[in-house]
Amino acid sequence: MFSIVIPTYNRPEALERTVSSILRLDIKDGFEIVIVNDCPGCGTSGFGDTRVTVVNNGQNLGRSKSRNRGAAVCKHPVLFFIDDDIEVKENLFEKHLAEFENGADAVFSNVVNVRTDGKYSFLNEFLNTRGANRSGSVREVRSNYFTTAFCSIKKPFFERIGKFDENFEGYGWEDPELGLMIAASGGKLSFVRTKNLLHYHDKDVFEWLEQIENSGKNLKYLIQKHPGFKKMIKYNILTSLLGAVAFNPLFIWSERLKAKSSRGFFGRINYSYLYYSAIRKSLIK
Fold first, then answer.
1. 6: nearest Cα among 81, 106, 97
2. Whose CA is closest to 171, among 143, 145, 210, 128?
3. Which is nearest to 208 in space by CA: 112, 83, 124?
4. Are residue 178 and residue 41 in the same domain, yes or no?
5. Range of the domain at 163
6. Are residues 114 and 223 in the same domain?
7. Which pTM value belongs to this model?
8. 45-96: pLDDT as tens digits
């Protein structure tokens, strides 16, 4: 038996798609869905299903606190955390539970980024080659690739490692931090690759970069907790004189001009450059 926690903030159509996609699956194990409504004043449906519970926050708490609040009321020993913009197209719950039978303490899966209107997005194509979506052996599990878009964890282990760190506020970096905490606590982390988790991602490249640029507070806090993460984001290079030269405003302006028409191999180079320029900007703000 397992529990599913879905935090949401004023996205009723996205939430409807996520919850309905789960309820349509042929799931033989007993489960519950706990929706944490983090938008005070916004009504959230219980979907007419006794397995669905809605927890309404009295004030906006943010993603980490909302996930922890949802976990606190869950009844079952395995927790799944799923974002409210995910469509679940196969019974991955069964596959995750099998990993727990094999000794895992936490499991995560990659997502496939798509637009809600079905249009092509090079940004989504680019994101579908990064992090947990990188090609290679499924045995190569990196804790900094951990994502809470669709993940699961044993509830006692989750509580023992301190749950989601509630010092993360706003957008960014709480996902890899939980992965790093799992690894630092000696937990066994497992990865289930899939093509059947759709993440509805409509942002353009400039909106995506702005999110990263504004996530510096969380990133600095993550580095403070896990100094080894500096190497993973090339911190020493980005904050060096070389970084200042490589990511000077003129170069960034030139690469941003190319971004709308970027495609293919050179497009990936362009987006990688802009990604690290946004990381650098977030660090020096």
1. 81
2. 210
3. 124
4. yes
5. 2-200
6. no
7. 0.92
8. 778 889 999 999 988 899 999 999 999 999 999 999 999 999 999 999 999 9
